Amino acid sequence: MVGCGNLLRGDDGVGPVLVRHLWELGVPDGAQIVDGGTAGMDTAFRMRGAGRVVIVDAAATGATPGTVYRVPGEEFAELPPLQGLHTHSFRWDHAIAFARWALGEACPDDITVFLIEVSGIDYGADLSGPVQAGMHTVIDVIEREFLHALRPTAAAEVTVEFTADGYVRLDAALAGSRFPSDAVAAVVRDDDFWLIPLRGPRSGGLLLKQRNPAGDRSALIHEVLYGRIPVGVRPAFWDEEQRALRIPLEPTT
């Protein structure tokens, strides 16, 4: 997956900003997430040998800011000519055309492009609200359709371990499938302890730190459960509606 654009020019930086969000969500094995910046030729060579490619860039068509366009690869039959093209004018469509010419059979056939309509591209500006909203829509689609299948799977009913020194421990499959960014919120509701996945460390909350080479994770929850830590292995249940892991504090019957 390649995010294209100029971070210094407001909404034109939506591709690289989106890449940073995906990095925080965690990159599963088998995927590569790249900040392509404005180097279209680098984007082309990044495609070499990939099974599937996703490109995200800004668009300026005059439509409503934040509008998301999804362009499937089969619509790329008529691409702009490369003759006379300068490296500074490379766009995502030029990158695809160049990749097909330069890479030959090593160029992937499965290419999807997401374009997000900009509001402004002033130097030094942040992403506008509509473009941020469009970006998160694209992030959700990329996670659901391209990355989710690469993540470890975990059953709806699992176990976690609470330690006497105030940590909760999750095995690698549970952490990788439900908490890929390693950032969580921890709250107590009645007799249940909840771990809620966050988008990344910038969202605040607690960090699930790697505790062994296998990828098991642990977070310090002593202050959240002070005086109520149920030391030992406990059953846990993924709540699809709440998008969170529920752990009963009292023994289940």
UniProtKB/TrEMBL annotation:
One of its GO terms (molecular function) is aspartic-type endopeptidase activity. The keyword Protease applies. It comes from Mycobacterium adipatum. Coiled coil: none annotated. This is Peptidase M52. Gene3D superfamilies: HybD-like. Keywords: Aspartyl protease, Hydrolase, Protease. The keyword Transcription does not apply. One of its GO terms (biological process) is protein processing. Signal peptide: none annotated. Belongs to the peptidase A31 family. It comes from the Bacteria.
